[in-house]
Amino acid sequence: MKRARLVMAGLGLSAIAATPAPVAGQSLPPYAPINPVLQMRTGLATIPYLGPGWQVSFSSDYGNLIEYGAGQDVGYLLDAEVLAARIMVSRSLGPAAFLLAETSLNGSYDGFLDGFLEWYHKITGLNVAARDLRPRDEFGYEIRIGERQFAYQKSSGFIGDVRLGGGVRYGPGLQSAAWLTLPTGSTPAGYRKGVVSANVTTMLHRDFGPEQRFTYEGTVGLGFTPRHGELREWQRNTFFLVAQGVRARFGGPFHGYANLIYGSPSYRNTGIPELDRAEITGDFGALFRFGRGPSWVIGMTQDLAPKGPAIDVAFRLGVYW
Q1: Would you say 319 and 296 are in contact if contact means Cβ atoms under 8 Å apart?
Q2: What letter does residue 130 receive in the DSSP assignment?
Q3: Three-state SS string across the chain, please?
Q4: pLDDT in tens, 86-115
Q5: 3-state SS assignment for residue 16
Q6: Half-sphere exposure of 264 (CA within 13 A, CB side)
Q7: How far is Cα 111 from Cα 113, in angstroms, rounded to an integer?
Q8: Where would I find the H helices in the chain?
Q9: Of the candidates 27, 115, 308, 309, which lies 20 to 30 Å from 63 by C-alpha distance?
């Protein structure tokens, strides 16, 4: 874990030292966790670099999870496919300040990707032992700690937390944002924070390289969510996020991107590694932008650390105006 933090910090320092001013509208896709056990706690996310005027983004993430562990005093099962479809709107207030608002439609399902992912893992040489223990495409979400057991149900669709906030651009390529997440009544148990969370991020955005073909973005964030609900005695209430990413223009409308995200642990002393450990996620894909039109994004995220809360595999589709 210390090595991962040093690598991310080194990437950030090298990019800060070596890059000129950015071109607006060439940001990386935003990222927010979609694992239910993380959604219940942290409100942190990355925000794209927001230029003047109105900006609208729509993104859809669909992920497949399989976490299974059992011990003498603990047990954990999360076998599901989850959806998070978000729409965010921002509006500049003068040359520096802006407001932002976001809502989302979420869901959890039995799914249909288990067979495909078994084939994918065989090709890549990755062995996910839990897939051999669970039936294909069958939902399960249970936590057992000592004598206490918690079971949650799938949901065909619910409104996620609403995000309201604003921020300021200090100059070309440096931006801070702060927001609250507001709980909604439609969010079922096992997916909801149930309380207001407060979050703040600062992001550095720089173009560099021959003909400014590359864009670096680094984000650091802090969040606070009061403990709430039946898991409160194991919950953390302060959170930390670091993201380091690069976008590259390869030719014509085609861009590629890669982003490394670290999210601090959301729980402690449960005895379940998938809850107590940090999230380390790789986010990568392709972007297409034709003329002055919107940017289209096709990508995927991958869990980079075993026995952590990151999504095994999630597929991304988005459009950004």
Answers
A1: yes
A2: H
A3: CHHHHHHHHHHHHHHHHHCCCCCCCCCCCCCCCCCHHHHCCCCCCCCCCCCCCEEEEEEEEEEEEEEEEECCCEEEEEEEEEEEEEEEEEEEECCCEEEEEEEEEEEEECCCCHHHHHHHHHHHCCCCHHHHHCCCCCCEEEEEECCEEEECCCEEEEECCEEEEEEEEEECCEEEEEEEEECCCCCCCCCCCCCCEEEEEEEEEEEECHHHCEEEEEEEEEEECCCCCCCHHHECCEEEEEEEEEEEEEECCEEEEEEEEEECCCECCCCCHHHHCCEEEEEEEEEEECCCCCEEEEEEEEECCCCCCCCCEEEEEEEEC
A4: 999 999 998 899 999 999 999 999 988 878
A5: helix
A6: 18
A7: 6
A8: 2-18, 36-39, 114-124, 129-133, 273-276
A9: 27
Q: How many residues in the chain?
A: 321
User: For position 314, what pLDDT does the model report?
Assistant: 92
- Whose tokens are 């223009």? That residue is 249
Task: Return all residues near 14 (Cβ < 8 A) that are at least 6 apart.
Answer: none
Domains of the chain by range and CATH?
Answer: 2-60+85-107+157-320 (2.40.160.40)
- Dump pLDDT digits (tens) for 152-201: 999 989 999 999 999 999 988 999 999 999 998 788 999 999 999 999 99
What tens digit of pLDDT does each residue of 257-314 get? Answer: 999 999 999 999 999 989 999 999 999 999 988 877 788 999 999 899 878 899 888 9
Q: Comparing C-alpha atoms, which of 251, 254, 244 is closest to residue 287?
A: 254
